[in-house]
Each structure stands twice: as structure tokens, then as C-alpha cells.
# Entry
Amino acid sequence: MEYRRFDRELILRLDPGDELCGAVTAVCRIEGISLASVCGIGACDRAEIGLYDVSSRKFTGRTFSEPLEIACVAGNVTEMDGQVYLHLHITLADSRMRSWSGHLKSCRISATAEIILRIFSGRVGRVYDDATGLNILDFSGTSPGESSFS
# Structure
């Protein structure tokens, strides 16, 4: 993986064997990023995605172990318990142009991936929500003018 920073944006190039979620988390830790949007494209040979069922509070997952195009990865970076928290979704396509989408758990890059992080000033946390069983955005510790960007 390599990346470059341009003011409040980072461009990442992931290489074969890189794990997408791990690479984005590592860059956020190195750069001190606590709030950002994420988008990207690329190719992978292994991916785990899921769908969350609110009524049962369970993820239904699927693992793919084949060449896939990453048509889109999108989501955000926030914090939970002082740690980087990624919430990413992905759309994958196979050689027959069938596609699958879902919550991204892991994704191993096969050729390359191009990921863009757009950094925002401030911090937004996460808190467990009893009603859904999810870690939802928590604005209680932030103010609209808060800035932690250096």
C-alpha cells in the first residue's frame, strides 16, 4: 500500500494481498484521522460481506473466493471507544457481470484498489443502540464548530 495526502484528502493505492479494511484503518491511525468519508474501486480475490437483519439482530454473511471487480466501496470513518471505526459497504461483480452488495467485513486485493478518504474536521463517535443492536452515530460529544484537525 502507498498513499499521498492532499490537504484534507488522501489517495490510497492498495496492492495485491493488501486487506482493504486493515489498510484504511492503518492509514487513519498513522494520519490521526477520526472522521472521513471513504470511496473506492478495484479488484479482489476474496471478500466477506454481510446483511444485518434488525429483527433477529444477526448478520447473514457470504464469503467470495474468486476474481471480483470492486465496482464501489463507500462508507465512513468515525471512532468508537477511542479507536478507528469503519462502516463500509461494497458492490462486487463477477466475470458474468453478476453483482452482490453488502456490509464489508474483509476484502483481499488481487490487482489494485484506489481508495479516497475525504477528511472532515471534528470527531463523531459511535454508541450501541438497544433498539437496533447496531453501533450508530453519536453526536452527543460533538458540536457543529468543533475541530480537531491539525
About this structure: The first strand starts at residue 2 and ends at 6.
